[in-house]
């Protein structure tokens, strides 16, 4: 019983550590530069996508953990993934069970790919922010920016644009790594779920 929710506990611990590190960095003031005009919009967009991905991943980890527990109890629900698989291979030969196992693996894999796509979107948004930041920087450069009155605004615009470019790349990359780690935990749980379903199915088939 102490290992029934091991997958969920690992997931919570990893995210608790990551959240603690993020809070420590924020409290040190190292992220203050992102809470300025232009930069904050991109950062909030990337953060919103990350939170959505984290919520989706959490739901899938919980579902996977619950399904593993049901299989270990030996009596999975008929409407669960395992129950549907058992109904499919009931009184089938070895070849049919092999086909059913292949289909099950494809369905389980497809169920978790969405989290990976969201993680990749974070990097893409960071790169878009980088391009926008360079556009902002270059928009301030004009041929007649030669005297001291015009150089100061140009420098300010360059700094603003580079801030957008660097912070969006940084936040997108870090949150991508965070969500990829969560996806890896989900993948491990899915592999364990698949193995448990196949093992129980074969045991029932030989019984």
Describe this structure in words.
The chain is mainly α. The protein has helices at residues 6-27, 39-73, 81-89, 94-139, 148-206. The chain contains 5 helices and no strands. The chain is elongated. The mean pLDDT is 85.
Distance between the amino and carboxyl termini: 26 Å
Number of strands: 0
Largest sheet: none
Strand content: under 5%
Low-pLDDT regions:
none
Shape estimate:
elongated
Concise overview:
The protein is mostly helical. It has five helices and no strands. It has one domain (6-206).
Keywords:
elongated; about 85% helix; about 210 residues; 5 helices; mainly alpha
Task: Produce the secondary structure layout.
Layout: H1 6-27, H2 39-73, H3 81-89, H4 94-139, H5 148-206
């Amino acid at each position: 019983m102490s290992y029934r929710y091991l997958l969920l506990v690992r997931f919570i611990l990893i995210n608790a550590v990551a959240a603690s590190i993020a809070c420590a960095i924020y409290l040190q003031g190292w992220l203050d530069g992102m809470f300025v005009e232009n930069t904050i919009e991109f950062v909030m967009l990337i953060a919103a996508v990350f939170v959505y991905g984290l919520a989706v991943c959490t739901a899938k980890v919980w579902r996977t953990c619950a399904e593993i527990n049901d299989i270990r109890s030996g009596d999975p629900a008929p409407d669960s993934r395992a129950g549907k698989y058992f109904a499919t291979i009931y009184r089938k030969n070895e070849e049919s069970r092999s086909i059913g196992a292949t289909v099950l693996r494809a369905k389980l894999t497809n169920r978790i790919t969405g989290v990976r796509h969201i993680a990749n979107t974070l990097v893409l948004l960071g790169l878009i922010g980088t391009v926008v930041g360079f556009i902002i920087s270059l928009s301030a450069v004009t041929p007649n920016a030669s005297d001291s009155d015009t150089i100061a605004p140009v420098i300010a615009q360059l700094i603003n644009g580079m801030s957008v470019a660097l912070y969006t790349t940084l936040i997108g990359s870090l949150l991508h790594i965070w969500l990829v780690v969560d996806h890896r935990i989900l993948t491990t749980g899915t592999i364990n779920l698949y193995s448990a379903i196949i093992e129980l199915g074969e045991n029932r088939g030989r019984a």
